[in-house]
Amino acid sequence: MIEIHEVTKKFQDKKAHVTALKHVSFKVKQGEVLGLLGENGAGKTTLLRAVATLLTPTDGTVTVAGHDTVKNPNAVKKKIGVLFGGETGLYDRLTAKENLEYFAMLYGMSKHETKVRIDELAKMFGMRDYLDRKVGGFSKGMRQKVAISRTILHNPDIILFDEPTTGLDITSSNVFRELIHQLKHMEKTIIFSSHIMEEVTLLCDSVAMMHKGELVHHGSLEDLYEEEGSRDLNYIFMSKLVRGNIHHAS
C-alpha cells in the first residue's frame, strides 16, 4: 500500500545542505497500523510530508496505492487523509461545521453524505455543542477534534497522523484510540507519529524508528519484543538509539 524506497531529502540551509532523510526504505501493508517513532528532528514529519506529496524527495521514490507521489500526486491525494501536528488547516472565521462542509466540497462529497458524516463525527468526538461556533475561539483540544474529523471526513483508504493526540484531554485521547481500532477494522492503512509509547503499544502492528534522518528499525512489535527480550518500548527505543542499530532496519 505504501512503499518508501531509498528516500533521501536534503534542504539548503544558509550555510550548507541539511540532510533530513538518509536512504530510508520500508513498506506498510494494507490494513496495517504503523507507529513512527523518533526524537524531535529525527525526520518523521519530513517523511510523512513526502508520503503526502507535500515534499519531493531529493533521491528515491514513494509509492502510495500504486501511484508515485511525484509523477501522480493527484491520484495519491484522493487516497489519503493527513493531519500534521499543530497545523490543523482550519479557517478561524468559519464555524467547525462550515470548515467541515468546505473540505467535504473539496473532496467532492454530496450534501447528504456531508451532513450524515458530520453528524457521525460530531457525535464521536463530542463536538455537537460547538459545531456552530467559529473555530477562532476554540481551545487547542477543540481545534484538534475538528482537525481529526477533517482528516477522515472523506473516508480515505490511507491516513497519516503526525502527533494526533496533541492537545487532547484523556477522554478525547481515548476516543481517538477507539477510532484507530475502528479504522483498522475497516482495513485502513495508517501511519502515525507519536511520543507516547503506550499509545504505540496499544494501537500499532509495527514500528519504524528513526534517528537523525536514518531508519534505526522497522518491523512488527511482537518481533521487536522477542528480539530485545523486553516489552518496554521506551527502553527498547532508547537502547537502539544508544547502540545505533541501523543495520537492523529492514
UniProtKB/TrEMBL annotation:
Belongs to the ABC transporter superfamily. The keyword ATP-binding applies. InterPro entries: AAA+_ATPase, ABC_transporter-like_ATP-bd, ABC_transporter-like_CS, ABC_transporter_ATP-binding, P-loop_NTPase. The keyword Lipid metabolism does not apply. Gene3D superfamilies: P-loop containing nucleotide triphosphate hydrolases (3.40.50.300). Residues 2-237 form the ABC transporter domain. It holds the Pfam family ABC_tran. This is ATP-binding cassette domain-containing protein. It comes from the Bacteria. It comes from Radiobacillus deserti. PROSITE patterns: ABC_TRANSPORTER_1, ABC_TRANSPORTER_2. Keywords: ATP-binding, Nucleotide-binding, Transport. GO terms for molecular function: ATP binding; ATP hydrolysis activity. SUPFAM superfamilies: P-loop containing nucleoside triphosphate hydrolases (SSF52540).
